[in-house]
Amino acid sequence: MLSMAATTLETPLSLSRHVWESPGIRCAELAVAKGAARKALTSRRRALGVRRSAKVFAFSSISCTLWSLRSRRRSTCRTAACAVETEVQADFISCCSMAPRWEDAVEEVAAEAGTGFEAAFVFVSELYVDQAQGMAPVLEAVQQRLDVEHVVGGACAGAIGQTTGEMASEYAGGHRQPCEVEAGFVLSVAVVRSAGAVPFFLGANAEGDLALLNRMAASGEVRSMILLADPFGPIPDIMQSLDESFPKVPKAGGITAALQVGSDGRSSFMSSMAICSKGNKARLLSKGVCGLLLTEMDVHTVVCQGCLGVGPAVRISNVSPSGDVCIGIGGRPAKEALLLIFSAVNEELRAKMQTNLVVGLGRQGESETSVDDGDWLIRGIAEVTPNGSFRLGPGIAEGQPLRFHVRDKDSAEGDLKLMLKRYRLERTFSGSKEPIGSLLFTCNGRGKGLYGRQHVDARALEEALGEELGQRVSGFFCNGEIGSPGLVLPAAELGERAEVRGTALHGFTAVFAMLVPSSSKS
Fold first, then answer.
1. Domain ranges of the chain
2. Which residue has the higher pLDDT, 109 or 22?
3. DSSP designation for 378
């Protein structure tokens, strides 16, 4: 049964359309015209993430429109005697607007996405929340205009998505380009046509949809979870409870913004996340975790922690009784072990270790030689005690693998490319279906401040996995990121799945959630 300790935090955690003109085509040229139209249509489908089962009809017409019941995107093919029509059903669409008014942003998104989807993920900038005087008006407008069954949304400083509207397209250098808007007016919406979505909330003191979660856990139907967390909630406790109740279910998400109201001296915080289902008002939520349980959609997670290993992997040899202080490493005092590694590396790494040193932890019971690059759980050194020990946080144990790491621009870019390349290879060899799109939860400490340029995380997918998947991304800049370290590619059959490594709370991390239709879907 899902239960939780009563824990409350008083401060927030932060850690282009195709047009062909042919005025006079003879009958002998009709076959060529049809072929060209179908070829362009195929390219269009790929760009939109279209189901392969979409039907194609050929008929005689002066002009016809390639149209989508779901996305309402149009491309026109004019010929003298023939045209091709298709029913395009986009499984996933991402839209990102930067209109100056939140109502206009919703309209731009609706014009691009269309209607008829089951689930929507909505990421709303703090400036829009301030305009709308809360999260509820924005989520309710998205639900009604896009006619979505379930909407889950969170407030953020900045958001990620494919550009729509004049301002966003100008900002990112083109229409339908993946972009990162780190601050300002921005609304990002990702819609999924069919996912078997069930919205939920779990808060402090086990408040929320406890009965629903226990029922879904007992059913064994949940394949994956997408989560949004309030920065004031007992997030580690909730993650532990969800892992215990859904041990084989991949989970990914991020921590929303802390929405401050009033002056510094007499300020309070408003709800930064909400759920809105068809026929109901938005449900404002705080001090907990909300999201969607997905019963018809798998999620492959890729956690990019932006770090480079330094020195050999070793083992923790001595831990404080409280379980949060590393006293010994490899049979030596912790500080002495670090100094040995420091003396053995080159000058460049020494400089990085002095300013950007972190620690990577392997799983208890693992061999230190079996942990791949990128699979370490990264933690900062919270304190160096007077006796040279390292305070790393709760849950460390003797015998646990440990490796020192550094984090900077170069290591972050290298890790990003490495992890996405690993994902591409592992998905290929596993025989998994291709993702229809992805959600990206990236730290507000990344972006231009880390890389020195914009859109690096958002456009990394396109470089690593190709244009079709890489452009279909949506997400936001988080106060902390949620996901299991490394890669998680669950088996397609629920009965064949292994338990997922514990879901962790990260900082300075990019968490990709690749959405993959389950094997039971056509």
1. 19-86, 92-304+412-517, 307-411
2. 109
3. E
Tokens describing residue 233? 């909630």
The strand pairing partners of 202, in sequence order, are: 208, 289
Tokens of 439: 């959600």
pLDDT at site 87: 40
List, for residues 440-491, the tens digit of each pLDDT value. Answer: 999 999 999 999 999 999 999 988 788 877 889 999 999 999 999 999 999 9
How far apart CA 49 and CA 183 sit, in angstroms, is 28
- Distance in angstroms (rounded) separating the CA atoms of residues 303 and 421: 12
DSSP letter assigned to residue 38: H
Return the number of other C-beta atoms located less than 10 Å from residue 6's C-beta.
10
Asked if residue 358 lies in contact with residue 406, where contact means CB atoms within 8 angstroms, the answer is: yes
pLDDT class of 231 with cuts at 50, 70, 90: very high
In angstroms, the CA 114 to CA 350 distance is: 54
Tokens of residue 198, six digits: 């069930």
123 dihedral zone (left: phi>0; alpha: psi -120 to 50; beta): beta
**Of residues 427, 464, 307, 327, the one with CA closest to residue 374:** 307
pLDDT digits (tens, 9 = 90+) for 21-79: 233 333 333 333 434 444 444 444 444 444 443 333 332 222 332 223 333 333 333 33
Please tell me the distance from the alpha carbon of residue 466 to that of residue 460, in angstroms, as a whole number.
Answer: 10
Residue 310's region, left for phi above 0, alpha for psi from -120 to 50, else beta, is beta
Taking a C-beta distance cutoff of 8 angstroms, is the pair 296, 221 a contact?
no
Strands 487-488 and 224-229: unpaired
- Residue 337 pLDDT > 50, yes or no? yes
Provide the token pair at 320.
């404080």
Distance CA 303, CA 310 (A): 19
CA atoms within 13 A on the CB side of 201: 22
Phi, psi of 321 (to 5 degrees): -55, -30
Q: What is the average per-residue pLDDT within 128-150?
A: 97
SS3 label, residue 182: coil
List the one residue out of 191, 208, 190 whose CA is nearest residue 199. 208
Q: What is the pLDDT of residues 164-193, one digit of tens each?
A: 999 999 999 999 999 999 999 999 999 999
Phi, psi of 494 (to 5 degrees): -60, -35
Chain centroid to Cα 49, Å, comes to 18
Check: CB of residue 15 under 8 Å from CB of residue 256: no
Q: Tokens for 429, please give them.
A: 């060899």
Distance, in Å, from the CA atom of 113 to the CA atom of 290, rounded to the nearest integer, reads 24
| pLDDT at res. 262 | 63
Tell me, rounded to whole angstroms, the distance of Cα 350 from its chain centroid: 33
Query: What is the arithmetic mean of pLDDT over 102-108?
Result: 98
Q: What is the rounded distance in angstroms from the CA atom of residue 55 to the CA atom of residue 31?
A: 19
The letter for the amino acid at 317 is: S
Amino acid at 75: S
Instruction: Encode burial over 228-246: b for 16+ CB neighbours within 10 A, e otherwise.
Output: bbbbbbbbbbbbebbbebb
Q: How far is CA 95 from CA 352, 395, 473, 485, in A?
A: 38, 40, 9, 28
